[in-house]
Amino acid sequence: MSEHVEHAEHEINYVKVWAILLVLLVISILGPFLGIKVVTLITAFGIAIVKAYLVAKNFMHLNIEPRYAVYLLVTMLVFMLLFFAGSSPDIMKHEGRNWVKPVVQVEAQAPSHH
User: Which tens digit of pLDDT belongs to each residue from 53-100?
Assistant: First the structure.
């Protein structure tokens, strides 16, 4: 009987985790409607990190995988952050040699009917 109780403590309530993920999705969708950049960034990236953690922990069962799977995941995340840190200065700058960033100009004229 104690084995059954011990096993029940480690069971995951998938519906509860799904409901949490759904609420976080709604918050991350509604965040940009406030029009505040900081809130948008927090809701977009902060909640995305929390959702990724919940999915990895509860649905991918990484907590019961061998330790090397966790090390591989962490190594992949470090390399991804290094790649972003190395490429973002070139991608995000607006001027420079051999860099052309198209400028979108909105025409102030009334639309013409052909």
Answer: 888 888 877 767 777 877 888 899 899 889 888 877 766 666 656 656
**Residue 5: its pLDDT value, please?**
46
Q: Which residue has the tokens 């200065």?
A: 89
- CA 58 to CA 51: how far, in whole Å? 10
Over the chain, what is the mean pLDDT? 76
User: Contact, 43 vs 28, CB < 8 A?
Assistant: yes
- Is residue 42 within 8 Å of residue 31, measured between CB atoms? yes
76 vs 46: CA distance, rounded Å: 19
pTM equals: 0.51
User: Closest by alpha carbon to 25, among 52, 3, 6, 61?
Assistant: 52
Rounded alpha-carbon distances, angstroms, from residue 95 to 14, 85, 88, 91, 106: 49, 18, 14, 10, 21
